[in-house]
TrEMBL record, chains A, B, C:
GO terms for molecular function: cupric reductase (NADH) activity; ferric-chelate reductase (NADPH) activity; metal ion binding. This is STEAP3 metalloreductase. InterPro entries: Fe3_Rdtase_TM_dom (IPR013130), NAD(P)-bd_dom_sf (IPR036291), P5C_Rdtase_cat_N (IPR028939), STEAP_metalloreductase (IPR051267). Its cofactor is heme b; FAD. GO terms for cellular component: endosome membrane; plasma membrane. It comes from Buteo japonicus. PANTHER family: DUDULIN-RELATED, METALLOREDUCTASE STEAP3. GO terms for biological process: copper ion import; iron ion transport. Residues 24-111 form the Pyrroline-5-carboxylate reductase catalytic N-terminal domain.
Length: 483, 483, 483
């Protein structure tokens, strides 16, 4: 039951106990945000006075509990004023400068672009009203969140100001409204706060460019092999293959390579720990970044795999497929060839389709457990089992899918168009490296060493080291720099 | 890690500091809700006394920490009593009227239907026990939520009563139990509170009826064109087409039209703002309602599109497809016609299938980001980019899919059965209107005007107006009623 | 907006008001967990001193606000010390025993296996440092949650200790850090707490084994009928059918039977209530367990159904399908048989495919509403409507799918291989029982009785009983043991 209860008061702070809630709050402005702010303040138990240039026309927009009056009247009645107007209208408030002396102005504005102006909106407001205390806050909260109540992810309200007292006041108001205030420091943080809601999926930029880059590379490669080569060598027009067949041989390459790129950084990190013999050495920045983007890379891999499944399933729907089928049948009928069964071809397709569906099923499990609500209900062991163990199994099964699809074509001369190998051979490079590395890491000697390093052992340091054994007993040993 | 920890106490309110938690709470009743209530009260640190008509038989159902005794005994020991019995048993409690004088009774009951009785259950209870204070509360919480701990969406507990003190007491108890109490006012709100858990997906009623209505209309239209017309004109029995082919030409129409109906209200709102020259004029109720139901309309559109994809993919599976294929092959073999390749047909299918899969992929992104846990992790700019921008791109690509599917059939006389145009032409009306309107809105003059209106400019009002320019500088201008 | 705000302080507890936040906390250790702990403590406003064996080398890993020094120095400065080292290194801290006297040690360690050692890590630590107070806590929180901020599901921190004061202190610290402390009792609970993060999807074990068991049974049955029987009786090699066709006739059986097993316990529970004539009798343990695992059984059923759909859709893709199609066409062409249309076969496939897709669509709705974030936004009536009502409709439609797929094959002698009936007949047993039972329960006399029992009526007890009627009026009646 997640509907907002407008007009009703949360009882978490009783006005008779908490003076903050009997405070009068002023709101300047009459747009969407001002309206949502007024609604929320009223629901939280505050007295609200809205200052508008046209109180009579705008009164209908606001809840009845809020008093809508002229701007000058409104600011006289309160000490805290939310300035819910656009930056370009700040100067229109200069007439109120006298009345605003000594009051707290809360700048809730946002810009359209990152670093749109030389100074932040809050600093500009402060320069216009030097006798007031300006606090930057509430800009990361949307009007919808204000109206409908704070949800878990949107509960944080970032606040900064040069004045500690004012910050505390606004923080208390935010808490009563049901938000979690976070102190961001002085006014110099205002620019950073104003940039935060303008970020557009920052964690996805690199993975998306990576996917697009891989797509373009493999698409060109497949185009050359499947369309350009038949045209140049045999004068056959295979252009019709571009919308579905070329795309459908490109998407699985992107999905497969990206899936291996999810598990490669883990392998590199383990190599780094084995080489330096310690876990306390920081990874290079690029490896750190790569490790943090694994989830996005994995989800893009699943998206491409799902599209590949859709394209594959619609291959028999197409008119070109129908025409080719009928042509083959007619040719065989005319030649009266009755038996055309090639057992190897049949087995090849049965196996690689079946294995491909299993791989897609496992990848969908990984994608579903990435959803925030499900990931939060899993503990570390469960999450690690699904993402690491099941994920690696999915990588192995995808490799079987690729190998079975390719079958013996890598050894068939005809498959080398312009001396270019079949595409599937290129995609096998990174995944097979990852699988080989994981197999090597599972050898007892390497696994033991890695476990020791991860439990604190460091190469070259003389330290009395103990390892937990399978029975729970300890086996201790002195280690020196030669181990 | 989201398991409830039964038998363990949350430490957020230490009993030695908060007297509320050492309170004794009574529960009358021995059903599921009474049991869950007792479990939760015990976990929250309260002493619990359960009053039952058969304490010996019912004791096994309750946690050991709760004392199970006769009803008269139980009510003597406490001041606050949760009446966890069905409304029809309230009268059986009248024997306890003397002992209950001056105590707080909490009515937690629910009904089976909305407005099932003349007066709400709480008012009925109050009429039976005029010497007690009745508080309505906890009825929106399910027994499962009580046992397993409050989750984010189910945390709210609605409370109403004529007595402020009693309301405060019950609110404190709710807080200690981990819920968020919300004050709903006086006892007259009890009926509204009792109706709340009986609502059945209220936001979905209109979109579902809309989808069903569109489905019936298009289904009838397609039935006439694909089954009835061949029967009347050519005496061909095409009834077998009804389960899959007619359904599969209806579902995409419903999906496509509903997708355009998601973006049409935005266009109408922009038109309204342009016409009246202000953003402060309230939209008509029907437009407001329509804007609020866009998410449900969009999700239904995606559901129909996904079913359409399933039906399309299984077209080659069917026995009718197989028979038609073999018939064509046999006819061609008998006539010894070798080459049947029609390049235009091949290209038509390749393109419209490929484009259709891309549209479905984009729509699935929109559907996934509608999930509450993901929507909450996006900021406004990200959410707007995905739902507005990507969504409009999905609408454009769906239009390409429809146009390529239709190809030149709108200009082919034979396609007009009973003078009815091909179905796809009908579906293009609303989407093309929306796309055209959006294109017009992106023209610089219209876009500037819309931006001005959304930044506060009003037609007919003389106001010194400034616009943010691309460089962050301001261009001001005096505006008068002629602009 | 869910990013952590490192370096910024939550303002929920102002240091000038809450002494706890100006406390100095010590952290021993320099691994991932120690680092995440230090970051979170700094963000929460505490002064942090980190004790490491190599302060100079490790300082770079920690936030600048945390002071990194030698272990002996660090423990002198604080009263509360988080011991973030592995169990096997506890003995290395014995040198600090003198300095640690009277301080609170927080054991945050985890093990690799459940019950790995004879005593819990916390008890072991307490035995090494008898002069200190040991508190077990924070082990259920992952390093990632510490860094990124507490989410709803991961907010609980389990604490136990023999010392109440120490427990309260650590609980306050946990609250300031944004977690919800839960009191688990004395040190004897430490073992239980240490086992909690080691559980691996405990609710899924039984359903997964059930699914695997059903899969093996049906797979063997289908293998005998589809591969072994043709080989023995007709010497036909049908081994190629194993990867896709045999799997694709097994998966729907597993899905269908498991779907019926979701609704069977409800039927058994209702039977139990009708038989004993009361709702207050506890169900047997196995029925209770079964009722609690319904969600997992249902999700596995949906997963198998989705895989079945994928396998079915790729049947026309296969080379075997193509060869069979061409063979049939060639044979017909040679025999010049033009018309091969079998109306019954066509209708059979059209209906069962269409009905199957509808069933899958309904099951996907059930799966989606099982997601935590969506389930939490539904009230009880909505959840019950979707899971019970829509779910039962899905079961009925799946039964239609199975019956239409089977059609008249159960009456065809040739379908009985080795006298084994067609597989689909076996799968119909449990679902038809469930559907029949639900139909019987909906008969007015049985439905009334069940409703009476669920509203509190008990067979054999003389009680004045009232039932709510459709008009909201009450119909009372005396009931005696004969009813």
């Amino acid at each position: 039951m997640a509907k907002p209860l407008l007009g009703h008061r949360s009882m978490e702070d009783d006005p008779s106990i908490t003076p903050a809630a009997s405070r009068t709050i002023g709101v300047l402005g009459s747009g969407d945000f001002a309206r949502s702010l007024a609604i929320r303040l009223v629901c939280s138990g505050f007295k609200v006075v809205v200052g508008s240039r046209n109180p009579k026309r705008k009164a209908g927009l606001f809840p009845s509990a809020a008093e809508v009056t002229f701007q000058a009247e409104a600011v006289k009645k309160t000490d805290v004023i939310f300035v819910a107007v656009f930056r370009e209208h700040y100067s229109t408030l200069c007439d109120l400068a006298d009345v605003l002396v000594g009051k707290i102005l809360v700048d809730v504005s946002n810009n359209i672009e990152i670093n749109h102006h030389k100074e932040s909106n809050a600093e500009y407001l402060a320069s216009l009203f030097p006798a007031c205390t300006v606090v930057k806050g509430f800009n990361v909260v949307s009007a919808w969140t204000l109206q409908s109540g704070a949800r878990d992810g949107n509960k944080q309200v970032l606040i900064c100001s040069n004045n500690q007292e004012a910050k505390r006041t606004i923080a208390e108001i935010a808490q009563v409204m049901g938000f979690t205030p976070v102190d961001m420091g002085c006014m110099s943080s205002a620019r950073e706060i104003e940039n935060i809601p303008l970020h557009l999926l920052p964690a996805w930029k690199i993975p998306i460019f990576l996917a697009l880059g891989l797509f373009l590379c493999f698409f060109t490669y497949n185009l050359i092999r499947q369309v350009i080569h038949p045209y140049i060598r045999e004068q056959k027009n295979k252009l019709y293959k571009i919308p579905i067949e070329v795309v459908n041989t490109t998407l699985p390459c992107v999905a497969y390579v990206m899936l291996s790129l999810v598990y490669l950084p883990g392998v590199l990190a383990a190599c780094s720990q084995l080489y330096y013999g310690t876990k306390y050495r920081r990874f290079p920045d690029w490896l750190d970044q790569w490790l943090q983007h694994r989830k996005q890379i994995g989800l893009l891999s699943f998206f491409c795999a799902a599209l590949h499944a859709m394209y594959s399933l619609c291959l028999p729907m197409r008119r070109s497929h129908r025409y080719q089928l009928i042509e083959t049948a007619v040719k065989q009928a005319v030649e009266k060839k009755m038996n055309i069964w090639v057992e190897e071809e049949v087995w090849r397709m049965e196996i690689y389709i079946s294995v491909g569906i299993i791989a897609l099923g496992l990848l969908s499990l990984l994608a579903i457990t990435s959803l925030p609500s499900i990931a939060n209900s899993l503990n570390w062991r469960e999450f690690s089992f699904i993402q690491s163990t099941l994920g690696f199994i999915a990588l192995v099964i995808s490799t079987l899918h690729t190998l079975t699809y390719g079958w013996s074509r890598a050894f068939d001369e005809n498959q080398y168009k312009f001396y270019l190998p079949p595409t599937y051979t290129l995609t096998l490079l990174v995944p097979c490296t990852v699988i080989l590395a994981k197999v090597i890491f599972s050898l007892p000697c390497i696994q033991q060493r890695l476990l020791r390093i991860r439990r604190g052992w460091e190469k070259g340091r003389y330290v009395k080291f103990v390892l937990p054994s399978a029975t729970g007993e300890y086996s201790s040993g002195e280690t020196s720099s030669n181990v």
